[in-house]
Amino acid sequence: MQNSIEANARSTVPKASGSLLNFMKKHYFLYLMLAPALILTLIFKYGPMYGAIIAFKDFSPIKGIMGSEWVGFYNFEKFLSSPNFEVIFMNTLKLSFFGLVLSFPVPILLALMLNQVRRSAIKKNIQLFLYAPNFISVVVVVGMLFIFLSPTGPINQIFTWATGEPMMFMSRPEYFRWIYILSDIWTSAGWASIIYVAALANVDPELHNAANLDGANLLQRIRHIDLPTIRPIMAIVFILAAGGIMSIGFEKAYLMQTATNLPTSEIIPTYVYKIGLQSGDYAYSAAVGLFNSLINVVLLITVNFIVKKLNEGDGLY
Asked: Which residue range or ranges hold the ABC transmembrane type-1 domain (predicted)?
């Protein structure tokens, strides 16, 4: 019986180029469905990689990419030796790291709590309330932050009543990271919990019933039934989040910047924008952006390796 199953499995896998072509002809409709996503990926993801060449050149718009002179790693050395490097790099790393540590558990906790709500109508209303902030524009979110946290805003009215003076939330550098991270959790945590809610919906109710008969309390059921179910998804989400730890959203950080909070709000994406588009130093900004991407790739590979070792093979690849 086992030999026949293995033979059938091997028969479905193309063994040579000829059989591969026949396999593709037989399942051409599936490849046609895949084609739009593949074409868009090639155009918008791999196509722009050609422009990364300017990071190694003394780029001139008049001469073009191929006509500009090669300078090797000069632009990278310029960034690494600049007085702004340490401040910008550490700001980016701190904002990303603290954001990952504080925001990663929140969707999991929300999903576990939603899973305990048994009444469908109440659960749907709670989900609507949690998912709604994800659809608010970043510009609107930052505008709300400036309104609510302004010296005359509702939050500062409470501080003024309690302490006698308002708190300068948006202009003090020490408040920038907390405001950025907490507002990011508010807008994205509910939406990020969807994948965990879907995974928990597949848990067999008989497992919880059996655990109840054995005297397991709520925390024990979550620990031994719910968490093992979503553990592979947690591993993949964590790897992707850690791999993109240096890829902070440019728009929100740039919109939240003020002249007085720059010591903590100036990060690599905003620096690339100012150097590249505002100052016109395209080659240098491309080198900074490529440096940031290389760090993300190294972190992705490293974190995936560590998680696979610690999590019994559950990794991204």
From this structure: 89-303
